[in-house]
Each structure stands twice: as structure tokens, then as C-alpha cells.
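Pilot study result, target chain (439 residues):
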Amino acid sequence: MSLVIRGVFWVGVYLAVAAAPLVFALVGDNPPGRDFLTDFSVALGFVGLSMMGLQFALVARFQSVAAPFGEDAVVQFHHQVSYVATAFILAHPVLLVLADADTLRLFNVLEAPWRARFAVASVLCLLAVMATSIWRRRLRLRYEVWQAAHGLLSTVSVLFALAHIYLVGYYVDTAWKAALWAVMTSAFLGLLVWVRLVRPWRRRRRPWEVERVRPERGEVSTLCLRPLGHRGLQFAPGQFAWLMVNRSPFWLTQHPFSFSSSAEVDDGRVEVSVKALGDFTSTVHAIAPGTRVYVDGPHGVFSPDRFEGPGFVLIGGGIGITPLMSMLCTLADRGDSRPCLLLYANRSLEEAAFREELEALERRLELRVVHVVEDAPDSWPGERGLIDDQLLRRHLPERHRRMQYFACGPPRMLDAIEDTLAGLGVPAERIHTERYTFI
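Predicted structure:
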């Protein structure tokens, strides 16, 4: 099955699951005296709840689901669709009040029945999830605290919403409706068990150890990991993994990092390179050799192994160089003779990690490295500023429309590069980007 067909299939599954409770709940006899506005509010509430449940599946890291789209695209969809689901859910009580002002008394949780208490608590948890995600930095929440709270509040919100539906009773008053909700509830609970218990238990049987920590330029540290009691993992150049460092595999907090080493190493060892940007990343340089690590991966579709072409143009911004380094090291180890162009943007030349390694790779590959320095001194003879249309025109090869493009860096940079390459006639199917926007 091609990736396009698989993508269409998963989109269809998403739409079917999102709409299923609506169809089953509204088929059959409705409670007497119900007007259109009330029915419409119920419809929006059901769809919103289904979408909230599907949010857990979107971030459960099922590789078969993410493969047609890319992990970062799935996470981006998770971010954006959360606004839609929240709007549907909030519209449910608002429309109920518009239909009957007496509904306001149900918001008094001290006197309201439990079905209303669960509904109010579910919505409050949902609003807390949204607020802490949108304003995490303003609230000065550490990533670890946010991730744990995000998962806990989201789970409680969905469970309270399901309790609300069962206590209302209108939509589980027949055997087939009750069976539907039992299946959906079981699927949601099964997903939680799989993600929080089964997969961590499997990771527990495959531990890793920090062999050494190597300092790089630009406040970047490379963790060299070796497998303990197993053969490691096979990954494609450009992929990434979630790491739990010095924590139980059941720990809620995990950190995503790209592999920066060659995929052709046969001793099981892998390397990930991390820039000190705050929270956990600022402590990586001090991790002691021998520290236990658990690895969830590999993930992602950002890899030249998936695409054929006469050569590659790699565009990196800052720490976005890490998956590109993995690609170049792998191509060198394979003896690949296809031409490669690397455009590497940094604020200053001193912040450009892997400078010496890239110079060595230029001797092993048909590779040309172009450093682009934003704050360049007057003496800098190379490219300066940002990677824009004119810079690309100066350096792209004649057959640039046939090359495969891989770009990793800040989202604004990637948006601009996608638009620029499209303007230069590069087909969209040859432009591949990786956005690290997991929050």
C-alpha cells in the first residue's frame, strides 16, 4: 500500500471515529421535548469528545499512523485540532444555556447532580490543558511539569466526560448504544494501558547506558549511548527517539532528540546531540558516564532512505543540523557518490556545531558546505544574513528541481524555505522538513 493510500485511509479512520458517537447517539428516539438547539449542542459535544479521545492516539507514536505524514505533521495536527475540539466542547454548555436558561443552575457544583459535576470538572480540566499549553512559558512551567500535567489533566478530562454521558443516560439507554460506548471507553482505556504500561515495560527490558558525553561547539553536547544486554536498534538517517535519562521507563517525562550518528554503525551504539536551551537540555553536559537511559524509537520519516534522487540539498538552522549530520555520516559510510550541498545557518560562526566533522566529510563525500552567518563580522568572506531566495539561487545546482531537499530548523525558517523553494520550481514532493514543535 502506497503512502498516499495509507494517508487517505488513516484520515478516513479519523473522521469515522470522530463522527461515530454522533451518528449512534442521534439515531433512534430522542428524549421528549428536545428542540433543535439542544440537539445541536449534544452533537457538538459528542464530536468534541471523540476528537479529544483521538488526541491520545495521535501522540501515541504509532509508526504506521505517522508514516504517511511524518511525526512532526501529526503532532502539528494534534496541536491545531485541539482548538477545534475545545470549541465544540465549550459550545455544548453554551448552547444548552441559550436553549434553556434554567440550565445555569447545573453549574452550581455544590448542589448540582453528579452528571453535571463531572461535566463541569471535565471542562475545567480541558481549559487547564489548553491554558498551560498555550502559555507554558509565560507561566514559567518547566517542560517536565507541563508534560506530566498535560497527560494527567487530559486523561481526567476525558474520563469525567465519559462519566457525564453514562450518568445522563439518554445515550446508553439501549443495548446497542451501551455497547458502542463500552467499546469506545474500552478502546480509550486500552490505549492508556498500552502507552503507559505495556510499552514502558518493553523498554525496561532494553536499557541503554551513557558511555561518554562529548562537548561540541555552540553549547551542544553529544550523548554517546551503548545498549546493555541487547543489540541496540536500527534507525534510518534523520530519524529521532524519545529519551528517558536516569529515570524509570514508566516516567511520564520524555525528551525527543535526533540521532546525529551514522546509521551504518554495527556495534549498536548511537549518538544524539543536544543544545543547551533550558530545562533538561542545559544539564546534558553534566550527565555522568554510566547513567541509565531508556530509548523509545526510532521515529520519523525525515530520511533520504525514503526518497530517490540524483543528489541532496540539506538546509540546517542551529541545532537542526543534528539529523543532517546523521544523513551525511551515513552517506559517507555507505560510499555514496551522489552530490550533496549543505547550507548551514547560525547566529555566529562559533555557534556552528560539527565544523571540523563537516570539513572531514567534505573529503569523504561529494559535499559542499556553505556556512551562513547572521551576525557576521566585517572580515567574514562567506554568506551572511538569512537563507533567502538570492542565496539559494547562488548555490543551488543546475539540476536543482530534481534534487531531494531536507531542511530542519526553527519553524519560521522552514516556512520561508518551503515558500522560496516552491518559487524556484522545486516540486513539493521533493521538499522535506522537520519541525520540532512537540509542545
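One observation from the pilot: The longest helix spans residues 175-204. A full batch analysis is planned for the follow-on phase.
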